[in-house]
Structures are given as C-alpha cells and as structure tokens.
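INFO batch 0412 | record 1 of 1 | parsing
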Amino acid sequence: GPLVPAAPNLVLEEIQARGQVRIFREPDCSENDAAEQPFIMSADSSERSLVERLRNWLTQVYLQHGYPHTVTQDYLAFTLWRLLQNTAASVMGVFSTEALLLGLGLGKNVSGTAQAVQWILKDGFGHAGKIAYAAVAGKQFDMDPRSWRIMSDLLEDLAGVLEIITPIFSGQFLVLASIATTMRAIAAMTGTATRHAIFKSMA
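INFO prediction complete | emitting tokens
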C-alpha cells in the first residue's frame, strides 16, 4: 500500500465505499529508518475476517454514512427498533392482505365484478380520506414530528387489525376495508412527512 508519514504508534481507521478499513503502523525495519520516516500501511480488504467484512457491509447498508461519528448516541437504538417495526409490519401485511381477500369472498361463489367494485371503492375512499386529512393536518407535522410519527405507527397497526377481522364481518367488508385503507394512507403520508425532521434531529 502507499506509504503515509505518521507519528509512532499511530492507529487510524479509514472509511471507504466498501466499509471501514483498518490502517496500521508498519513494523520498524531498522531503528534509523523508523526514526527518520515512520509510516503506516493500509490493510487489504481481503485480509480482514469474514465477520468484520459482514459487519462493515451491514453498517454501510443500514446505518448513516460515517456512523457513529455523524449521528447521536440514540441513532443505533432507533434503527434497531425501526428494523423490528418494519419486519413486524411486513408480516402483518401478509396476513392482512390474505384476510382482505377472504373477506372479499375470494374462492367463494361470489360475483367477480362485485368483488372488483368493492376493492376499487375501498381504495377510492382511502385516497379521499387521505386528501381530506392532508388539508386539515398537513401544516401541523413540523410542530411535533415525533408525536405525529407515533400516531402514524398506531394508525397503521389499527388498520392491520381491521383488515384481519374482515373475514369475520364479511357483510361489512366495504366499511371496514375503506376505514383501514384510509388509516394506512394517512399513516404512510404522516410517516413520510415527519421522517426528515426525525433523522435530522439525530445528525
């Protein structure tokens, strides 16, 4: 690697595009050379252990660039909880989608046209509700973004619950599905609107 002048016993870390690369001081060849020109040599990425390379890759993918020097101390905890939340939301999304299809009457002797109309209507009511919500609360997000973000998470969870119980109350499918779709749309819009302010507070 390239020779870089350095102080004796200096240990550095360099962050590159592929993760953190250790920089270590080259052992002294002779006392005269060490006194005149101490230097360090960069470690080749192939010399790093598999665990270290995996850790660096995960850090690069999931954490802020320059972590942990560019963020606050609570950023890692926030990221781990957000990862857990996203995983749970994905699992709930699978079950809620299946429940919606069952509540709609998929697989039963029900008119396909009627099913399609109800599905389109629920989406239409959801978009209308999101627009109305944005007109009323759109200017309030910057006042307390964390509270709004918590509210959006709760709305998304409640929407999932409503979708899951639609097979039990299949006669009220359109009402329940429309409310759930509206809540999901509001939650998504609120989460997107407050995301920048939350991440900025951790920089």
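INFO post-check: The CA atoms of residues 10 and 25 lie 7 Å apart.
INFO record closed
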